[in-house]
Amino acid sequence: MSRIDDLPPLREVIRAHGLDARKSLGQNFLLDLNLTSRIARAAAPLDACTVVEIGPGPGGLTRALLAAGAGRVIAIEKDRRCLPALAEIADRYPGRLTVVEGDALEIDAATLAAGEPVKIVANLPYNVGTQLLINWITTPGWPPFWSSLTLMFQREVAERIVAAPGDKAYGRLGVLAGWRTQARILFDISPQAFTPPPKVTSAVVQLVPRVEPLPCSLKALERVTAAAFGQRRKMLRASLKTLDPQAERLIEEAGLIPTARAEEIDIAGFVALAERFAGGRLM
Ligand code: SAM
């Protein structure tokens, strides 16, 4: 694929605007149009929703989203050096791209979208990617304001998001993501596709909200998983004792075996534990 629009090639945009990549902002730009288009297609259809993109940078993925038919894109970028390049894209697609300068950790994407259905699509800056994901998954109220998240992470983080009991990568992130969403890895992207290349392989993950996640207190679930996986080699009766001296009894009441370890417990099991411990002294 040589072109998806009549804007200048991304390498030229980067040169013209002096967008040398900054490590502190997690800047690894994706310049391959086949790949940016593949990410946009994975999130399709895009015409009947507002797409929120985090960290558009020089605008490669932004352009792919617009070329793929996104009706409206709201792009949140912290690096103001990128704004002129993004303004050129906004001119090319009148009324369809709104650029918001700021820190995505502090901006409420739901408010920006003003009640319209939202899909979040991003090549996330690695230093804040996990926290952004946790914020979206733990958003107050359910179903959330977004109908899908199509996100690029380091492959190791992607594996933690989709991990199941027994997997080496299974931990707090997998429980949280699996509790409220269905998450899967769509495809990998090699380091060479980026400028500059990161040290590790990346992967695109898609998460869609579960219609009816098992009812559970988020706070209790977070505390139980933190205690259980914080000492993942220990049996639950030992690791959860820090939360309640009656841990062994509560674990049994949750229908689980006190000598099991965190990595063996599925999401329903953690929800049951959160319930029992919330009814005890946890909350
Ligand atoms: N979307 C572009 C691409 O695919 O080539 C750039 C992706 S780059 C991995 C991450 C982008 O996020 C950079 O443009 C960076 O400036 C921006 N960024 C970093 N931290 C941010 C934050 N807290 N809020 C918003 N944008 C941020």
TrEMBL record:
S-adenosyl-L-methionine binds at residues 28, 30, 55, 77, 103, 123. It catalyses: adenosine(1518)/adenosine(1519) in 16S rRNA + 4 S-adenosyl-L-methionine = N(6)-dimethyladenosine(1518)/N(6)-dimethyladenosine(1519) in 16S rRNA + 4 S-adenosyl-L-homocysteine + 4 H(+). SMART domains: rADc. It comes from the Bacteria. Gene3D superfamilies: Ribosomal RNA adenine dimethylase-like, domain 2, Vaccinia Virus protein VP39. GO terms for cellular component: cytosol. Its EC number is 2.1.1.182. GO terms for molecular function: 16S rRNA (adenine(1518)-N(6)/adenine(1519)-N(6))-dimethyltransferase activity; RNA binding. Pfam families: RrnaAD. Belongs to the class I-like SAM-binding methyltransferase superfamily. rRNA adenine N(6)-methyltransferase family. RsmA subfamily. This is Ribosomal RNA small subunit methyltransferase A. The lineage of its organism: Bacteria, Pseudomonadati, Pseudomonadota, Alphaproteobacteria, Rhodobacterales.
